[in-house]
Amino acid sequence: MLKQRILTTCVLALLLASLLYRSEAWVWPLFVVVTGVLASEEWAALHWSGWRLKVGYAAFSGIIAALIIASPDIHAIALLPLFLISAFFWMLLVPLWLARQWTFQSHGLHALTGWLVIVPTMLAVNELKLHGVAVLIVSMAVIWISDVSAYFVGKAIGKTRLAPSISPGKTWEGVLGAILGVVCFGFVLRELSVFDTQLARVIHLAGWYWFPSLMLLALLGIEGDLFESWLKRCAGVKDSGWILPGHGGVLDRIDALTAALPIAAGLLVWAALGEKQHVF
């Protein structure tokens, strides 16, 4: 299993690097939409059994995202309300959802929640890349650093369970480790930003809330992981899918990103808008 995980991770890293640095401009949005379609199919499978429903839901999700991404009239500012809705969902509704351990009572609620989780993530990934490849990679790396830090700190000193009925392995000590990990990463990024003007601009735009933003993204990543764990527990499955050997499904790999990236994109769009208003 470990060998499979490492091999799959290496293949995904090479694919990501190729798409980001060596592909035509249209290839990346296509990859984002295809990834979103696969994630949507897995989301549907957590609640529905009929293949027509799953395929139809996934296709419709991809069409929604593709139309928005491909539209020349959609400006980043127009996406800000969607990112704000996503922030409301993850920062207010999901904590209550997990605390009350709600379950889906209707197909419509399941479908709507899936769109709130997956579609803003697709749009956020595309929007972050428009601000620079380094910006997108750093946004994702914050979550990876958070995850790794939480794992090792939790394994070393973790005692107080964070959500034992949802994910017994997570601890509050691990959460603290995640926060410390991204703060350290933030200092490193500030030093490395001299080599990338787009990353330097983002850090400049962030200003005093650079580190609070990193800590917020780390917490959101943990929440996204917990949310998908709860949904899988409700569905009675270990993994959301099988397409990634050693990892499970697409949702299993992007669960933390679905909570963090829309907020990261929203913060960036908001900061850029504030900068333009200040200039004019």
Summarize the topology.
Elements: H1 2-21, H2 27-45, H3 51-70, H4 76-100, H5 107-130, H6 133-157, E1 161-163, E2 167-171, H7 172-192, H8 197-206, H9 210-235, H10 250-279
Antiparallel strand pairs: 1-2
Helix pairs in contact: 2-3, 2-5, 3-5, 4-5, 4-9, 4-10, 5-6, 5-10, 6-7, 6-9, 7-9, 9-10
Q: How would you describe this protein?
A:
By secondary structure, the chain is mainly α. The chain has one domain. Helix content is 79%, strand content 3%. It contains ten helices and two strands. It has helices at residues 2-21, 27-45, 51-70, 76-100, 107-130, 133-157, 172-192, 197-206, 210-235, 250-279, and strands spanning 161-163, 167-171. Helix 2 (27-45) packs antiparallel against helix 5 (107-130). The radius of gyration is 18 Å and the shape is globular. The protein starts with a helix and ends with a helix. 39% of the residues are buried. The mean pLDDT is 88.
Q: What's the pLDDT, averaged over the residues?
A: 88
**SSE string:** HHHHHHEEHHHH
Strand order within the widest sheet?
A: 1-2
How much of the sequence is in beta strands?
A: under 5%
Low-confidence stretches: none
Roughly how many Å apart are the termini? 56 Å
| SS-derived structural category | mainly alpha
The count of DSSP E runs of length 2 or more, i.e. the number of strands, is 2
Tell me the number of structural domains. Answer: 1
Give the CA-based shape.
Answer: globular
Number of helices: 10
Largest sheet: 2 strands, antiparallel
Helix content: over 70%
- Radius of gyration, in Å, reads 18 Å
How would you name the oligomeric state of the polypeptide chains in this document?
A: single chain
